[in-house]
Write a structure and sequence with these properties.
With 782 residues, the protein is mainly α. The chain contains 34 helices and ten strands. It has three domains: 508 residues, no CATH class; 75 residues, 2-Layer Sandwich (Alpha-Beta Plaits); 132 residues, no CATH class.
Length: 782
Amino acid sequence: MDGSLPPNDPRGRPTLVMTTQLVIAGSLGLSAFIAFCILRNQWADLYAARTIHHPGLPPLPKSFFGWIPALYKIKEEQILEHAGLDAFVFLGFFSMAIKLLCVCTFFAVAVISPIRLHYTGNYDDTAYGDYISKTFIRIINPGTGRTVEDPSSKEPEEYSAYLWCYVAFVYIFTFITGWFLLRQTHHIVRVRQSYLGNQNSITDRTIRLSGIPVDLRNEEALKDHIESLQIGQVRSITICRQWKELDNLMNRRRKMLANVERAWTEYLGDDGAKRSARSVPIASSLPQSPPIPLRGDDGSTPLLEHALLPNVINGTVSYGHRRPVMRIGFLGFFGKMVDKIDYYTARLEKIDQNVKLARHKEYKATPVAFVTMDSVASAQMAAQAVLDPQAYRLIATNAPAPHDVIWPNLYKSRFERLIRGWFVSSVIALITVALFIPIGSVAALLNPETISKFWPALGRALETSTLLNALVTGFLPTFLFTLFNIIIPFVYNGLSNLQGFVSHADTELSVIGKNFFYIFFNLFLVFTVAGTASNFWAVIRDTTQIARLLARSLKQLSHFYINLIILQGIGMIPFRLLEFGVVFKYPFIKSFSKTPRDYFNLYKPPNFNYGLFLPQPLLILIICLLYSCMSTKILTFGLIYFILGYFTFKYQLLYSMTHLQHSTGKSWPMIFYRVCIGLLIFQLTMAGSLVLQGAFYLSALLTPLPISTFILMYNFYKHCIPLSNFIALRAIRQHQDRPQGSHTLDEERERNQVYINPNLVCPLEEPWIADPAGRIINVHFD
């Protein structure tokens, strides 16, 4: 017997599927990477957008591949300086995952797989065995012409020696993972305390008070009360009021301002608007030019239908454009014909008058206020203290950054926010249940026999074509899995924005939690454990079967997860460099862009949302941990995923994307707990795997590991969570003296900012009008 497999043998299919997936993913990834290397310099406005506003960024060579080693040499201190704490924590997670997987892969290649190969003939512990390992054995043993015996033919004592290897390495990998988690935690805490303790931003000196009693809802009374607590002097207080009327007026004004700009662009043409997009450095700083008059040279006012505006080009005035007109009746089909520019401008001026009146009104105070203290230490003491003996009164928390505050949500009542939270949770629960069917359908595509039952014609085609079989059962499920992973997170992001969080950072952290729950529960647990109806009802009837079902399903789905990580890492990660979504949307958004403001927003760098980008790497790391003792291939491709992801996200966070949210690295506790959950499932899975092979005693030996993992989580909660939320007083005192003129990224970003609703104080913007030369001009009516 030469060990060769017959045609269409299921044991040979995973190898063909993996080869096909490597070819497809490699082609996608390589083409995207080469395209990025070519376009990086040609489309610098997109792929190096942050260099415009952050000239201090480390320069990257313009050579084809020269940017890669230069990017690698950028140190953590530079990441912290130019991208902030959130980027430091995010990239630190990737760096930790790379080190962890390097160690696990080394042990898997050097110890676990050779032992498994000796005892079972399989390099990986899979459902069908490993055709590659059998071929390898035939190569190194050409004289014998046989493969290693099936494990069932071995004596129980001899086979249990191989299973002891599993027990040992479950312990080893658990403690290695815990050690890396604690090591990274201490590193992040140390850097965070040093970074925040070394700055004196308005955010660090401000607390948010909620539950303010009625008798303290004015600035003087609240200031006197806070100072009477002897925790420091109060610099300023902003009591949030019911500014909904003013907010609605400003929203109407922004829409009317857009109408005025579109009317002017319709009159002048959009050539100047296109040219102006690159000439506006920032939205709040527009170049000023002499106003263009709206009257003729003789002082007369042109008729509405035939009014002409002078075109000012290089000092020469010429007439020749017809002013746009419109009907003001129902849907623009009925009513009086008016000049569009005059009509919208008059309405804008009317709204401006209402805004000025609204800004001087007295509004009802809410039980929420921002209190800025005289020092960081005072604010931190207040945020950690119990300020009132009654429950739900004077609750102090760290304030979000001024630019991060979502003001309309601050004066929503606690009841309204509670209702919104329950509504969003209910919608997410409905989506979770509704996704059972499509995810189960994806699971059905993995098995040709199942396909033959529901679609006999396709089943027969799969039997006759090995390539089609590989594409349908290998590439298609991972592609659909990826498609689900792209679409649903945006839905959850939209739902989180409706929930009523008081800051964009809180919203982003909520999106991380929601999307991880979706990707972990729906796309992993449901897909893996309850991928079929029989498995689902087995779990419902007897929850003690979860470990066995999980172990059995993971072995059966090992090749799927190999193909998934190949597609995500080698195929999709390079596409993130291309910012394919932004490039894809660009022509559609550009087709609707008319005004200078539209074109300016078109060239703004996209926002990096950790809620959309963090959950998937977390799941990939958990999958790698689950298969760390069973599949060397998954560990290897997982390592490649994190290496490519580190370089990709490092480039984006530093050079091409902005991160407007400000959570000061608070995503790390979420990462820590979720990796610990992965450890618990890893231990449960390995216990179930040993039970499946009859090794009940060895399975019982793993009992201490979940206990140690819970101890690790409790230790983190008890000792590290406070340091992840607050600034230690000792850290503040240690860094009071620093070089003159040095500022952190947060201080630069928060310079001259105050805690006040922008609609109360922001200047009423003039329309952005561009002359044919592309210069932004101001238009005033005589």
